[in-house]
Amino acid sequence: MFTVGMFAANCFLVADTEIREALIIDPGFDSELESKTIMKEIERNDLEVKYIVDTHGHPDHVSGNATMKKLTKAPILIHEYDSALLSSSSVDRKLHDGDLIEVGSVKLRVVHTPGHSKGSIILLGADCVFSGDTLFAGSIGRYDLPGGSLKEIQSSLRDKLMRLPDNFKVYPGHGPVTTIGEERRSNPFLQDFNWEFF
What we know:
By secondary structure, the chain is an alpha/beta fold. It has a single domain, classed as Ribonuclease Z/Hydroxyacylglutathione hydrolase-like (Metallo-beta-lactamase, Chain A). The protein has helices at 32-44, 59-62, 65-72, 150-159, 180-186, and strands spanning 2-4, 9-16, 21-25, 48-53, 76-79, 93-95, 100-103, 106-112, 121-124, 128-132, 135-136, 139-140, 169-172, 178-179. The strands form 3 sheets. A 6-stranded mixed sheet has the order 1-2-3-4-5-6, with helices on one face. A hairpin with a 2-residue loop joins strand 7 and strand 8. The two termini are 32 Å apart.
């Protein structure tokens, strides 16, 4: 996990270190130094980056797309509903709910979770989830931006994320790593879904 850019977004390098295949999630860096730090880790582990995956199309998660594509030659993947948000880099593959992304033995299922943006996704692993800007430790993503929706983020949280087992690790788009169980117990937004006071 690398915390990058002026909005302190989390960028993840996920790899099968035996087969030496990897993917990058949300390269939201805005400096050459940050891209070099990530490339150093890729080179140190002798990894081939197969994919660059964006959990959604906001600049603080995609600003390093073009740089990483140039350095790794990896295709850029984003949900079809957010593909139009990528102006500085071309989309190589539009993702859909249920798609499977594989690097070596690592398998991540694409789950469409609209609410923060129309095309927000989470990436579901065997015992973890990369939650983008849908769920954070102690909070949730904003739903007042263009393409956001209170009703949709409530539905995404209740019907998709809160159905995961408590032991699932949550790797969010900003802030510290948490678990589904911890968020179910203590996240004020998940105690009930009646948020009339906001």
